[in-house]
């Protein structure tokens, strides 16, 4: 085995990848993934040993992936695939080997280290996410940059030149067996093509493209745009890229416009295109940096950073939908003596809303304009006050039993009865089932 494939196949390395995958999928809403996760957790070491043997013997094959179509905010659609648990473990383990800081591994990566360490490319690497990308933009804005152009690549994942990515990996990475597995993981085969039949063209089933949802898609995208990053960061220009979103910053409108044309030329060479300022898409602007601009969900000014208006509106719209659904479902308990089983009451709805707000706040905890967060809090308070007034009115007119259901506190009378059946055989004391009692 090769110098990278050997540590990749170690049981310890696969186990670390499994722990990451398990943590990421712990609350997944996809039933097939939950079933796979539960099945894997019954005998994780035995399954990892079996996976290790398949990898070492060369019999491992990536499985077809579930696919679904997601509607974008603008109304268009994109195809997304969902790898299974075992495939995720392998992909996560592959990425961990490539992104390891261990110099004994990095010396076998050749020019891939330049891609992984690119100071203006973000996404797909630990410690290089949205906060770091925004910090790089803000730093350039506070330095010599005066004008900014933002845009994103159209239909990025289906147009990634997979053959170019594969050739680069084979040329630079000194482990053919690991590279072969990487290239296999970037191919796409659907487990449910009939379910997405009208939109099959959204999935990269041919020689080009990498499926969105694959853990290897970000790596493939960063490799494909390696020359873009290099050519858009020379001279007076700074171009910060977060996967398919990018911001070009420069000292003048002329310099930024020239850089934007260079970006379009580079993308065209790869068979890609991007949105342009003034094209009515609303996804690209050319502005004076002093006016502020939106990038990666943030509003960036020289004076500071805050969540964008769109990001704030999306949070409040989700909250409005949740509160409306809560009103609708809680009204059931005041309409009659309906039993409450697993349905959410007031306590459960408030916990869900709290979790959503906490998650949004965690995503924007790096913003410097804290007053913008206080403004969102006031909007949330106003909505919660209206909901509380509605809730108090319904609780006041409810019976004691209905009140318990409304609050989300279990009512023992709602417990479904269970008929007693005589045992087929006498099981002795070990087979007895007794009510739970306190000592």
Q: Helicity, in percent?
A: 40-55%
Strand element count: 10
The count of domains is: 3
Largest β sheet strand count, sense and barrel closure: 5 strands, mixed
Which stretches of 5+ consecutive residues score pLDDT under 50? 427-439
Please write the string of helix (H) and strand (E) elements. Answer: HHHHEEHHHEHEHHHHEEHEEEEHHHHH
Silhouette:
globular
Head-to-tail CA distance between termini = 60 Å
Overall mean pLDDT: 91
The largest sheet has its strands arranged as: 3-5-6-4-7
Q: Measured on Cα atoms, how large is the radius of gyration?
A: 27 Å
Strand content: 5-15%
Structural class: alpha+beta
How many individual helices? 18
Care to describe what's here?
The chain is α+β, with helices and mostly antiparallel strands and about 450 residues long. It folds into three domains: about 1-105 and about 160-205, no CATH class; about 125-155 and about 225-300, Alpha-Beta Plaits (2-Layer Sandwich); about 310-335 and about 340-410. Helix content is about 50%, strand content about 10%. It is built from 18 helices and ten strands. The chain has helices at about 5-10, 10-25, 30-40, 45-55, 85-100, 105, 110-115, 130-140, 160-170, 175-185, 215-225, 225-230, 255-270, 310-330, 330-335, 345-365, 370-395, 400-405; strands at about 65-70, 75-80, 120, 145-150, 240, 245-250, 285-290, 295, 300, 305. Strands 3-5-6-4-7 form a five-stranded mixed sheet, with helices on both faces. Helix 9 packs across helix 11.
């Amino acid at each position: 085995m090769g110098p990278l494939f050997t540590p990749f196949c170690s049981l310890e390395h696969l186990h670390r990848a499994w722990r990451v995958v398990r943590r990421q999928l712990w609350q997944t809403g996809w039933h097939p993934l939950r079933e796979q996760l539960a099945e894997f957790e019954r005998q994780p070491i035995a399954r990892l040993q079996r996976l290790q043997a398949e990898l070492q013997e060369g019999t491992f094959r990536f499985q077809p992936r579930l696919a679904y179509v997601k509607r974008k905010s603008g109304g268009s659609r994109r195809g997304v695939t969902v790898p299974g648990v075992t495939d995720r473990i392998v992909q996560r383990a592959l990425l961990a080997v490539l992104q390891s800081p261990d110099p004994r591994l990095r010396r076998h990566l050749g020019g891939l280290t330049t891609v992984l360490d690119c100071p203006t490319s973000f996404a797909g690497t630990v410690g290089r996410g949205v906060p770091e990308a925004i910090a790089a933009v803000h730093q350039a804005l506070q330095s010599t940059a005066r004008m900014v152009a933002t845009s994103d690549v159209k239909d990025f994942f289906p147009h990634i030149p997979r053959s170019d990515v594969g050739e680069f990996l084979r040329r630079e990475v000194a482990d053919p067996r690991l590279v072969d597995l990487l290239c296999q993981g970037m191919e796409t085969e659907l487990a449910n093509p009939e379910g997405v039949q009208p939109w099959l063209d959204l999935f990269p089933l041919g020689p080009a493209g990498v499926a969105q949802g694959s853990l290897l898609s970000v790596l493939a995208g960063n490799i494909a745009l390696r020359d873009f990053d290099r050519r858009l960061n020379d001279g007076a220009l700074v171009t910060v890229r977060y996967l398919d979103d990018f911001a070009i910053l420069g000292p003048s409108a002329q310099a930024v416009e020239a850089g934007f044309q260079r970006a379009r030329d580079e993308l065209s060479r790869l068979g890609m295109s991007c949105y342009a300022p003034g094209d009515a898409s609303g996804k690209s602007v050319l502005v004076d940096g002093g006016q502020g601009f939106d990038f990666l969900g943030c509003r960036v000014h020289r004076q500071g950073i805050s969540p964008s208006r769109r990001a704030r509106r999306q949070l409040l719209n989700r909250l409005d939908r949740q509160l409306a659904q809560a009103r609708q479902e809680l009204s059931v308990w005041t309409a009659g003596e309906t039993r409450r089983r697993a349905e959410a009451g007031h306590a459960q709805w408030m916990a869900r809303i709290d979790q959503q707000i906490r998650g949004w706040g965690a995503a924007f905890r790096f913003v410097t304009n804290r007053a913008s967060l206080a403004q969102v809090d006031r909007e949330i308070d106003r909505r919660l006050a209206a909901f509380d007034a509605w809730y108090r009115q319904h609780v006041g007119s409810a019976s004691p039993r209905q009140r318990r259901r409304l609050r989300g506190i279990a009512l023992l009378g709602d417990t479904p009865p269970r008929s007693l059946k005589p045992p087929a055989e006498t099981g002795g004391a070990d087979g007895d089932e007794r009510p739970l009692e306190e000592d």
